[in-house]
Amino acid sequence: MERIKCVISYDGSEFSGYQVQPNGRTVQEEIERALQKMTKGSPIRVTASGRTDAGVHAKGQVIHFDTELQIPEDKWKKAMNTLLPQDIRILEVRKVSSSFHARFDVQQKTYKYFIDLNKDMDIFNRKYTYHFPFELDVESIEQACELLVGEHDFTAFCAANSGVKGEKVRTIYYASGTKLENQLVFTFTGSGFLYNMVRILVGTLLEIGTGKRNATDILGIIESKDRKKAGKTAPAHGLYLWEVMYEEKR
Questions:
Q1: 125 DSSP assignment
Q2: CATH architecture entry for 107-246
Q3: Cβ atoms within 10 Å of 125's Cβ, excluding its own
Q4: pLDDT tens-digit series, residues 220-230
Q5: How high is the pLDDT of residue 163?
Q6: What is the pLDDT of residue 172?
Q7: Mean of the pLDDT values across residues 67-87?
Q8: What are the pLDDT digits (tens) for 158-216?
Q9: What stretch(es) of the chain map to CATH 3.30.70.660?
Q10: Distances in Å between the alpha carbon of 23 and those of 15, 17, 30, 35, 118?
Q11: What is the pTM for the complete model shown?
Q12: How far is CA 177 from CA 4, 226, 239, in A?
């Protein structure tokens, strides 16, 4: 039995999320279907670094699975991509120790969120960036991002109906909102993220950028631990799971 680690990307536009569910097409389901074809009918269960919601994209999601298939490491990528739909791609494949776990061994994750600031929406990017044609005070957004860095209880930035159990303390190592021509790119790197946390952060930061809130309001929102004190949840289609980082095991 071998444990296989894969870095994958997917266009979330036509998926009901990553995780298998009774109704709706999912990323996990498509990958497991491809693997089952490779094993001539034997099911293989795939474990990911975490779930992504309907419409959310991934540039660097990580999965692992166990298999008895004897395939050279350099042949796995082509074998899987041949059987997968075109909105899922395997980017990298490695054989790893049986102790590796795609979810429990995560050290850091990076998410990016893309905003289209053009007056007119680019219809060819409408599924991949959030169209927000308003003037923004990027300096205030950056100031607010700096206040997010550190270890905090992010209850106020977790969807109220998430069902997340246990403490909601997470560490943000890096947060920024960078304007590149007519695009604003948010980047968040942290120890982990709560359900809808990045999208709620983005929604709140956009309210700061449009003058509806002050940058320093971030501190009060965090202290409140009240979802109602934070901003709206930004749409899913601007969000990308960008990179998942692990400590190399020896």
A1: G
A2: 2-Layer Sandwich (3.30)
A3: 16
A4: 999 999 999 99
A5: 65
A6: 98
A7: 95
A8: 998 766 667 899 999 999 999 998 999 999 999 999 999 999 999 999 999 999 999 99
A9: 107-246
A10: 11, 11, 13, 21, 36
A11: 0.95
A12: 35, 24, 13
Please give the structure tokens belonging to residue 26: 């999912």
Q: 250 pLDDT exceeds 60?
A: no
> Among residues 53, 74, 122, 137, which one is catalytic?
53
Q: How far apart, in whole angstroms, are the C-alpha atoms of residue 190 and residue 183? A: 23
Inter-residue contact 115 to 185 (CB < 8 Å) = yes
CATH 3.30.70.580 domain range(s) in the chain = 2-96
Strands 239-246 and 57-67: parallel
Q: How far is Cα 134 from Cα 176, in angstroms, rounded to an integer?
A: 19
CB 180 within 8 A of CB 118: no
Is 53 tagged catalytic? yes
To the question of domain 2-96 being in CATH 1.10.8.60, the answer is: no
Residue written as token pair 């999320």: 17
Can you tell me whether residue 48 is helix, strand or coil? strand
Q: Sort strands 47-48 and 2-10 into parallel, antiparallel or unpaired.
A: unpaired
